[in-house]
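Ops channel
N.P.: pipeline sanity check, posting one input/output pair.
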């Protein structure tokens, strides 16, 4: 596993935790599912976007927008 992959995994972990922090009724499984099935996750995995380099708070704003749409 390279540094990019580790950064992507860490971003998923942080985004899932942020979802739980904002909604304590979410299980870790549900939070992970929300992240992993999102367009935001696809963007994180796209090396051309460099989204995995960004602040988790910045990326979370995309995820929130997507989930609230």
């Amino acid at each position: 596993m390279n540094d990019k992959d580790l950064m992507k995994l860490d971003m998923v972990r942080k985004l899932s935790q942020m979802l739980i922090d904002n909604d304590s009724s979410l299980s870790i499984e549900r939070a992970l599912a929300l992240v992993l099935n999102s367009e935001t996750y696809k963007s994180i995995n796209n090396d051309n976007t460099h989204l995995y380099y960004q602040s988790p708070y910045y990326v979370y704003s995309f995820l929130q927008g997507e989930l609230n749409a």
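N.P.: looks fine end to end. DSSP finds four helices and no strands in the chain.
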